[in-house]
Amino acid sequence: METRKKWNREELLIALNLYHKLSFGKLHSRQPAIVALAEKMGRGANSLAMKLCNFASLDPALKLRGISGLKGASALDQTVWSEFHEDLNESVPASEEAFRKLLGVSHNAEIEVLPEAGLVVKQSPAGPTELMASIKIRRGQHFFREVVVNNSGGVCSVSGLAIRELLVASHILPWGSHPKHRLDVQNGICLSRLHDAAFDRGFVTFDENLQLVLSPQLTSRLDQRSVSENFGAYAGQPLHFPSDATLPKEEFLAEHRMKIFRVA
Fold first, then answer.
1. pLDDT for 130
2. Low-confidence ranges of the chain (pLDDT < 50)
3. What is the pLDDT of residue 136?
4. Are 193 and 166 a contacting pair, CB within 8 Å?
5. How big is the CA angle at 134 (ends 174 and 189), to the nearest 5 degrees?
6. Which of 45, 53, 103, 192 could form a disulfide with 38 if both were Cys (CB 3.0 to 4.6 A apart)?
7. Whose CA is closest to 155, among 140, 143, 166, 171?
């Protein structure tokens, strides 16, 4: 039987970190990442899964899709949720550090949340003299990648490529010019490295129906096999997302179409 004990703020911060790295359909007590994290927290997997479902009831992105979580979120749950989302650039690195501290990983390591495998620790090339500011940025980037890739089901949302090492959490609005949205999952799309480069440089975009649109620079080269197979084959096709995924924000895509997409 699980021991009932009150959740404290740091535990909720860690749980919220994991919440954003798993889709709603993965929030159950048999999910490997939940099982592994619950053990480290000294809690039962069912307790942690229920808390994540409580968070789901507070998630506006899920509400827009008609998905509701588990009622019973506490006042502290609501406070931590609000504080976390008020300033992601501050709260995300803090949650990543708390997450790492609980798992006892080294300074030069990152934790991947793999829905089918659980929590996997990987060494990072960053050195011990790395500045705190750089660490903070790297923690945020790591969080964003995990959230966006898992939100897309671990595949490129254009091509369906499922090799994680070849996937990029692509920003719709650029990192440098839109700091407020750097870590917002609705500002991200999981793309292959090739499609990420094309999107970043305006060779492709997505319309209001999330369908791939090619720039004239690509449509004029569809006679080239590589362009035809990698871009022409997907033109007009909608992005692929799991049914419980958080979809990109249309206003972000509209700005990409207006300011980044190459119309000539």
1. 53
2. 1-2
3. 86
4. yes
5. 30
6. 45
7. 166
CA distance 153 to 25: 11
- Given this model, what pLDDT does residue 1 score? 46
Closest listed residue to residue 41, CA positions, set 120, 103, 116:
103
DSSP secondary structure, the chain, as one string: -PPP-PPPHHHHHHHHHHHTTS-GGG-STT-HHHHHHHHHHTS-HHHHHHHHHHHHTT-HHHHHTT----S---HHHHHHHHHHHH-HHHHHHHHHHHHHHHHT--TTEEEEEETTTEEEEEE----TT--HHHHHHHHHHHHHHHHHHHHTTTS-TTT----GGGEEEEESS-TTT-GGGTT-GGGEEEEEHHHHHHHHTTSEEE-TT-BEEE-HHHHTTTTSHHHHHHTGGGTTPBPP--TTPPPPPHHHHHHHHHHTS---
The CA distances from residue 238 to 153, 207, 235, in Å, are 15, 9, 9
Residue 123 corresponds to which tokens in the numbers above? Answer: 């060494």
Tokens of 243: 């049914």
Could you give the C-alpha distances from 126 to 39, 153, 164, 182, in angstroms and in order? 28, 28, 21, 21
pLDDT tens profile 165-221: 999 999 999 999 999 999 999 999 999 999 999 999 999 999 999 999 999 999 999
pLDDT of residue 3: 52
Tell me which residue of 109, 84, 116, 90 sits closest to 17, measured CA to CA: 84
- Report the predicted TM-score, pTM, of the whole model to 2 decimal places: 0.88
Q: What CA–CA distance (Å, rounded) separates 256 from 239?
A: 16
Token pair in block for residue 93: 């690195």
Which residue type occupies 61?
A
pLDDT of res. 65: 85
